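User: Need the bound-state model for iron/sulfur cluster:
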Amino acid sequence: MKLTPKVLFEKLLAYYGPQNWWPGEGFEIAVGAVLTQNTSWQNVELALENLRENDLLSPQKILDCKLDNLKKLIAPAGFFNQKALYLRNLSKFFQCNPQPTREELLSVKGIGEETADSILLYLFNQPEFVVDAYTVRISNRLGFGEAKAKRFWKQYYENALEPDPRLFNEFHALLVQHAKTFCFKNNPRCSDCFLQDDCTFGKSKKG
Ligand code: SF4
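Assistant: Bound-state model below.
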């Protein structure tokens, strides 16, 4: 069977099972989406735990928190000077825009397309396909296309799939899982990968 995005989704789901994303709920999802920029989820968890312990997971509480204290608490997620300001921007924004559009979210300093789409998909259940570096890498290697632009791949997957937030939610999580299990940036484990026979890059590695 030709590998299409739908077939890819079914194969990933059959192999890994449901990923049950996003960990957390409500405003915490938006905070996590900012904190996860340029860092691993493990580091984000540490920062979120600090915010949870200090009861800071609401827009007003983040705005009331002293900036230096906020920086200290989110330090495990890295880039804490920037991210503390982004969290304040986002908190201010959420107080006036409890149901934001994509354009409105993108107008907030510190909220790029991937972060905006994560917030819209995982917090507001909107059918926005989230594309990260893992999605681009896997899509290129599988042979879906050579484009590097995240915007291209967002359109590609949204055109190929039903606009179903549950499907987009699971698909993104499965792609992340696949990138972390087999499709590493350097030295992907193609000979162990269940997608090797469907994958342009994987087939080229066969002896
Ligand atoms: S065969 Fe290799 S390149 Fe292709 S999806 Fe699997 S790990 Fe990635």
